[in-house]
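Hey, quick one: can you model this chain's 3D structure?
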Amino acid sequence: MTRLFYMVYKMNKNYTLADVVFPEVGITHIAEDLAEIVEPKLSGRTFLEINTSAQPNSKPHLGTVTTIMSAFAVSQHLQDRLCVPVRLTFDALENAPGEQVTVDKITYQKSLKDCKVNGVSLAETYMTSFHQLFKYLHERTTIQFLVRSYDEYQRLSSFRKPLLEMTRRSTEFGPILAPHEKRIRIRFPCPECKYVDKGSVSTEVIELNENMAMLKADCFSHGEHRIVLREDNSDFVDTNTPLREVAKGYNMAIEARKDKSLPIMIDGSDWSGVWLSRVAYEGITRLGISYDETAIRFFTPTITDWSGAKFSKSLYVKTNAYRFLPKSLLDFSAFIQEYEQRGLDMLWKEVQTWATEPKRFFRNYSVDYFEMLLEDAK
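Sure thing. Here's the predicted structure for all 378 residues.
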């Protein structure tokens, strides 16, 4: 029924790209260039540290591709406009869930890096397409960039320190990071089967002082297991999104103090608004970071479906949503197969205009917009 509705909807379209408008909104009334938002904070900074991230839980779909392209396009524009070096880091969140089971009403999940087919993890399999996209963008920009795994990231002392602090102050941070459950989700996989208690239901702090926290959790197959969280050790510590968000914000501010960089984060716009003010900034500033030290945040345009809803990768992965859409918009490999490099070039050219014109950056785009944009690439 949904597919039929969508087909009828498309048949009744009577507009073209020439009809698209770019109304002034919010920040576009006072800034004509993204660089104007960054420039006032450049004094004393040696380079821009720009960060973006994604879960490699599928081949990148249209929304993920445009977000990554936006990170490269904005990085290049700021480097050219402000004449300051840029380093772009992509955090590959291979700790994202790959499969789940429920035992005694507790949900356990295994990460993408621990779900393997013929000895190759799902994270590695899906990252192949990401690397194809990185190669394409690297060849078209002069941006220095690196790809970093979550495992590498969680070993940094400036990431582990705020995790330890929030563990010590869990009653304070619980309502910020989880308004419904009011508990922080710090977790760690069973060393035998790699399943982790997703909701941290069984996680307990059994020893805690200024320098360390010893935690235990239960595995449905292998019983109790423990880790020690310290700034200077590397026991693997998994986090859910809000806990990682706050720890990452702290980490970027501390690293900026050391290397005199200006931190900037680029994410999809679903992480703006209440999430940004109620979770990210409130959590980060409670850890002793001043607002002025927090990263500048740019949120890329949301790609919407015909109903106006976010074009969600997680829904596509979990529920096979968007069955009515062309596979080329859902799967990077299928995109290349249908549109070839000409289509990728058209998409890159489009996203470059976002970086240079705020009225194009600070708005959403429908799937239909991109279908019209790519018609000439077929």
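One thing worth noting: The first helix runs from residue 2 to 11.
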